[in-house]
Design goal:
Elements: H1 11-22, H2 30-41, H3 47-51, H4 54-76, H5 86-125, H6 130-134
Helix pairs in contact: 1-4
Length: 155
């Protein structure tokens, strides 16, 4: 009676497993990897069988380290863009640009608030009421005989 042999990974399958690990998103465990390998390759392999191949072992350890670094940097609020998938890095760069724009616009609004308070104070001192300040601007008739106002030199 012939002894049953365990399935062995060939070179192409090792490349497939390494590519799977390199593209892995989410928590990476040997259990999840063996389940995915069984699904993709159509036959199960143990953790020990996968770990026995240097390329798979190095790819697994490298990806685990990168995923840990990504989680740590995101928790710290300063992710290293080279460690992130390109889509995430692009989204973070866009978010940073938008946050910078928000900060700039908020500074502009704050400057207008200061200017408004200054104008309001000066208007009250000059005896202008809120009704006068809120009155609409006069309509300008710019018909055919319109001429621009001549500039008066400053003293």
């Amino acid at each position: 009676m012939a002894k049953a042999t365990k399935p062995k990974l060939d070179g192409e399958e090792i490349g497939t497993v390494v590519a799977m690990i390199e593209a892995w998103n989410g928590p990476l465990t040997w259990e999840r990897l063996t389940d995915r390998v069984a699904l993709v390759l159509g036959r199960p392999f143990s953790r020990q069988a996968l770990d026995a191949h240097a390329k798979v072992k190095i790819a697994y350890q490298t990806r685990k380290t990168r995923l840990r670094n990504i989680r740590a940097s995101v928790r710290a609020g300063k992710p290293d863009l080279e460690e992130l998938p390109p889509e995430v890095a692009l989204a973070l760069q866009r978010a940073e640009a938008l946050q910078a724009r928000i900060d700039r616009l908020q500074a502009t609004v704050d400057a207008y608030d200061v200017k408004f308070v200054t104008w309001l104070y000066n208007a009250r001192i000059a005896g202008l009421s809120e009704d006068v300040l809120n009155s609409p601007l006069p309509l300008v008739d710019r018909g055919a005989d319109w001429e621009p106002v001549k500039k008066v030199p400053r003293r």
